[in-house]
Write a structure and sequence with these properties.
Strand content: 5-15%
Number of helices: 11
Bound molecules: flavin-adenine dinucleotide
Strand order of the largest sheet: 1-4-5-8
Family: Belongs to the acyl-CoA dehydrogenase family.
CATH class of the largest domain: Mainly Alpha
CATH topology of the largest domain: Butyryl-CoA Dehydrogenase, subunit A, domain 3
Number of domains: 3
Largest sheet: 4 strands, mixed
CATH architecture of the largest domain: Up-down Bundle
Organism: Jiangella asiatica
Radius of gyration: 21 Å
Distance between the termini: 27 Å
Helix content: 40-55%
Subunit structure: Homodimer.
Protein name: Acyl-CoA dehydrogenase family protein
Keywords: FAD, Flavoprotein, Oxidoreductase
Order of helices and strands: HHHHHHEEEEEEEEHEEHHHH
């Protein structure tokens, strides 16, 4: 299959305008807040600026006010937005809202799209996606899902506990995965529910204190205790939740990779600037072989990540599930981005771990990516199983 990586002119133009917007408008705000914004006013102000610059919602359908980019188009634009920790928030392509928009677009009915997708795409509300549970519940293994939804008159009653739910504080609605049939360990039997903020029985227990801080709305522990939702809160079909989770997860993994690739590039730029200025042992630091090796390895990791993202996006745009290629790209990128930021810190010496440069913040922000959207080990396990299965099949 021939693969052409060059973006169409309209995408290249949007990517270039996004890069300028991030450089001129977003990075000064990121520097002021050291990458962590907590106020709705600042979020709204950033999004107003993105709308004025004509770069808002590149992923959303044109009928929802977006630019309607496919996955390959998103790769070019999201990487530019990701050059700042606040770029995705400004463009309304941050996690988990961007993945939820993709899910709603694919699965929601017309009235659910009007009620949830339209205001989400416009940045008027935020959302969250509640799957993970404390032990022994769902995590790397979603089939361990313990949260239950039972039929009651006119709707469903949800009971269970969720944690690490990004953006739940202040979200207008939650997409909650609950078991509607079977037992924990069964591969099917999950349903997705749209739960409005303020629904009695859904309570925020706490903000979990985590290494990373930049994703808006924090990481939240949520309790569902006799939380009753109407029948029309069901997203898609009953018992099809695990299938829809795959619809969300493949593309969402890739968009995470795209955004973090932007941060890897920024880290490399910071480190190369520094190595070009600093003099050590009678030469520029950038002329010392072991520093050159780190700069070259960063460049290789960035280029390889971009290539793997593009291959997976190509398959997704072609209508394939792309389970293997998204798993490969996600595993590689999550680890490559970490390596790039870590080497960049090393190149900058003590300055690298100080708050005078953004690198130590980047290091804290990228580390969890090796855990969420599937830990590296879970992906490697799944990749290997597919390879062995393919081999078994070939050998009859
Ligand atoms: C910053 C952050 C944000 C998050 N946001 C959300 C969110 O918005 N919504 C949501 O629902 N969840 C969210 N999560 C949760 C995330 O999806 C889970 O952390 C992830 O699925 C792993 O589950 P777990 O933490 O329960 O780890 P476990 O499932 O307990 O796994 C622990 C470790 O076991 C190892 N492991 C797992 N599988 C295998 C395997 N097959 N073979 C070998 N080793 C393996 C890995 O090293 C893994 O790290 C978030 C997590 C973080 C850290």
């Amino acid at each position: 299959m021939a693969v052409d990586f060059s973006p169409e002119p309209v995408v290249a133009d949007l990517a270039q305008r996004t890069a300028m917007f991030v450089r001129d408008v977003v990075i000064p705000i990121e520097e002021r807040y050291q990458g962590v914004v907590r106020s709705e006013e600042t979020r709204a102000a950033l999004q107003r600026e993105a709308k004025d610059a004509g770069v808002f919602a590149p992923h959303a359908g044109t009928e929802f006010g977006g630019h309607g980019l496919d996955m390959r188009g998103r790769a070019a634009v999201f990487e530019e937005a990701g050059y700042s920790l606040l770029g995705p928030l400004a463009l309304n392509i941050a996690a988990p809202d961007e993945g939820n928009m993709h899910l709603l677009d694919a699965v929601a009915n017309t009235s659910q799209k009007e009620r949830y997708l339209r205001p989400l795409a416009a940045g008027e509300i935020r959302s969250c996606f509640a799957m993970t549970e404390p032990t022994p519940g769902a995590g790397s293994d979603p089939s361990a899902l313990t949260t239950r939804a039972e039929r009651v008159a006119g709707g469903w009653r949800i009971d269970g506990r969720k944690w690490f739910i990004t953006g739940a504080d202040g979200a207008g609605f939650t997409i909650c995965m609950a078991r509607t049939s079977g037992e924990p360990g069964d591969p099917g039997g999950a349903t997705m529910f749209l739960v409005d903020a303020g629904t009695p029985g859904m309570t925020m227990i706490r903000h979990i204190d985590t290494l990373d801080e930049s994703l808006f709305g924090g990481h939240i522990e949520l309790l569902f205790d006799a939380c009753v939702v109407p029948d029309d809160a069901v997203l898609g079909e009953v018992d099809e939740g695990f299938r829809y989770a795959q619809v969300r997860l493949g593309p969402a993994r890739m968009t995470h990779c795209m955004r973090w690739l932007g941060i890897a590039r920024r880290a490399q730029d910071v480190a190369v600037d520094r190595a070009g200025e600093r003099r050590l042992f009678g030469s520029r630091q950038a002329e010392l072989g072991m520093v050159q090796q780190m700069i070259a390895d960063n460049e290789i990791d960035i280029a390889a990540s971009r290539g793997l993202i593009m291959r997976a996006c190509w398959e997704l745009d072609d209508g394939h599930a792309a389970a293997q290629s998204t798993a490969i790209a996600k595993t590689f990128c999550a680890e490559a981005v970490w390596r790039v930021v870590d080497r960049s810190v090393q190149i900058c010496g003590s300055l690298g771990i100080s708050g005078d440069l953004p690198l130590s913040r980047f290091l804290r922000e990228v580390r969890p990516f090796r855990i969420y959207d599937g830990p590296s080990e879970a992906h490697r396990w799944a990749i290997a199983r597919r390879v062995v299965h393919r081999n078994d099949k070939a050998n009859g």
